[in-house]
Design a protein that fits this description.
elongated; single chain
């Protein structure tokens, strides 16, 4: 799937295919897709925050 890391052409998609795929989705499907991506981002950010907190504690213990 073309996710922005590669161009549509690099992913083997014809020009405009990404927009056409998005245009073919209903509002409900787009909302679900956006919600899924936000959940994934939220988990990643929580993980980063947790890792940062652990790193800060390590530095505090090292003095």
């Amino acid at each position: 799937m073309a996710t922005g890391l590669v161009t549509e052409a690099e992913a083997g998609w014809p020009p405009g295919a990404r927009q056409a795929a998005l245009d073919s989705l209903s509002d409900g499907e787009l909302t679900t897709l956006a919600g899924d991506r936000l959940q994934t981002l939220s988990r990643a950010l929580r993980r980063q925050e947790h890792d940062h907190e652990k790193t800060e504690k390590i530095w505090e213990n090292l003095g």
